[in-house]
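Priority: medium. Attachment 1 of 2:
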């Protein structure tokens, strides 16, 4: 075993203890009540980077939460890997569904994690994952084996749309110059079938409002004779997807990349486990776009989902009322070559078109993001594949993910470099949900794989 890998083995427990300390900080970017914790978390990350051996460590102010920067330049002629991650987390609610406190990390075993998993908000998304990079870097520094230059940007606003980061990278292009961006903020297909993520979907997110009568009405005096905004909104939402699971918005599929049958056959080599999939989420049947497998529906096809719907009386007991307004939040996951601007505009037009004349509708766009694809014959992908194959001792396949990390497309546009999505979570890790956890096996495999990536990538560039 190499000295670096030895160092990792010998310091395993400390790495985990340090991660647990980081997980105790409630760095919830969406809730202003936690702003102190978010700031404290940025300081803690900076301290870890410094202690690991990074230079120029800085907690960079932005309009929002700070971006933590650090670097180690050993030779300007060597390639530079830019590591990106986020130290902010999603709100933990509903709290009553957590088996232990979201910010009180505990180690427990699960059927998929017989070696144990750390349970806490942010354990898999993304503290446990970016921290693997800090520890792998420490191991390379302590054993004098860092083969190239490295820069870190760990941001604090990913879960709320990375608003400050876009401007910040444009203002710091020179400082952030790199050859490749390395990100661990995604998952592998399974511990038995490791994968490198080669695609992320884009996102278009809107809030809609349907207004009927100019005030709430008594449902006995008016019911049955006026448009009820809840009914109208429900009908409109139901109309957005047809019997075949196709989205009905005019022109929605115009720019969708048609993935070739060969490529689809290739991706469907990942052993689909329909029974396990259904069981893991308590369903007895799936649904989706006709003609596509579950794997395809959640990766290479665009989708539309209502994320929340409200209006009228939702308190205790009964209140007989027809509300004046009803609301919903709707997300659309996009694939190449759709853009959030195009899709938001098409949605808005269509939503107005299908609205009955006796109501008013309003569509308000939220943050969005572009899809991202890393070709599976690129040298960036090949270095990651080789690194993970070395750590797992298994063949690693490409895998397109359904989630979104909008900054990857922006990195390519502004900095001109490709992002390698070498994440180590499992889709069952319950990210954004109660009882989020991250497998210790995954945490350590990640730390092992990263130095191999640095080594293989540097070799490729020689
Ligand atoms: N790390 C996730 C994205 C992810 C998870 C991608 C697993 C692939 C596999 C990220 O933190 C996230 O939650 N992204 C949001 C979008 C963002 C704009 C809030 C998402 O995908 O919903
Ligand atoms: Mn994330
Ligand atoms: Mn997330």
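Attachment 2 of 2:
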């Amino acid at each position: 075993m190499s000295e670096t890998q030895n160092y990792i083995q010998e310091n395993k427990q400390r790495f985990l203890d340090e991660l647990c300390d980081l997980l105790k900080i409630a760095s919830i970017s969406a809730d202003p009540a936690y702003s102190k914790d978010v700031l404290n978390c940025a300081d803690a990350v900076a301290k870890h980077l410094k202690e690991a051996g990074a230079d120029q460590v800085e907690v960079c102010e932005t309009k929002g939460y700070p971006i933590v920067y650090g670097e180690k330049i050993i030779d300007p002629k060597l390639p530079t890997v830019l590591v990106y991650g986020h130290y902010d987390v999603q709100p933990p609610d509903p709290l009553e569904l957590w088996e232990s406190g979201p910010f009180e990390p505990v180690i427990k075993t699960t059927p998929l994690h017989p070696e144990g998993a750390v349970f806490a908000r942010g354990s898999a998304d993304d503290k446990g994952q970016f921290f693997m990079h800090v520890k792998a870097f420490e191991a390379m520094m302590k054993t004098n084996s860092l083969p190239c230059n490295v820069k870190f940007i760990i941001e604090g606003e990913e879960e709320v749309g990375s608003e400050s980061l876009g401007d910040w990278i444009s203002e710091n292009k020179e400082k952030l110059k790199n050859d490749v961006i390395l990100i661990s903020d995604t998952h592998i297909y399974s511990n038995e079938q490791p994968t490198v993520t080669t695609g992320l979907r884009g996102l278009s997110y809107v809030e809609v409002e349907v207004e009927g009568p100019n005030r709430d009405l008594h449902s006995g005096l008016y019911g049955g004779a006026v448009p009820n905004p809840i009914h109208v909104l429900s009908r409109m939402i139901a109309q957005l997807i047809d019997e075949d699971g196709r989205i009905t918005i005019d022109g929605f599929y115009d720019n969708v990349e048609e993935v070739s049958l060969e490529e689809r056959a290739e991706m469907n080599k990942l052993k689909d486990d329909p029974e396990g999939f259904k069981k893991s989420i308590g369903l007895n049947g799936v649904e989706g776009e006709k003609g596509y497998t579950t794997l395809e529906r959640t990766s290479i096809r665009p989708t539309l989902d209502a994320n929340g719907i409200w209006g009228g009386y939702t308190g205790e007991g009964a209140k007989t009322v027809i509300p004046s307004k009803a609301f919903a939040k709707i997300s659309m996951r996009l694939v190449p070559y759709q853009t959030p601007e195009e899709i938001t505009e098409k949605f808005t037009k269509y939503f107005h078109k299908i609205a009955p004349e006796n109501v008013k509708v309003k569509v308000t766009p939220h943050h969005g993001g572009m899809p991202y694809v890393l070709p599976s014959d690129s040298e960036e992908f090949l270095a990651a594949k080789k690194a993970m194959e070395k750590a797992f001792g298994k063949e690693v396949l490409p895998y397109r993910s359904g989630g979104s990390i909008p900054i990857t497309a922006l990195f390519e546009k502004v900095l001109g470099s490709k992002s390698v999505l070498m994440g180590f979570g499992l889709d069952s890790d319950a990210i954004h949900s109660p009882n989020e956890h991250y497998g210790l096996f995954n945490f350590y495999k990640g730390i092992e794989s990263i130095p191999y990536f640095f080594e293989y990538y540097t070799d490729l560039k020689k």
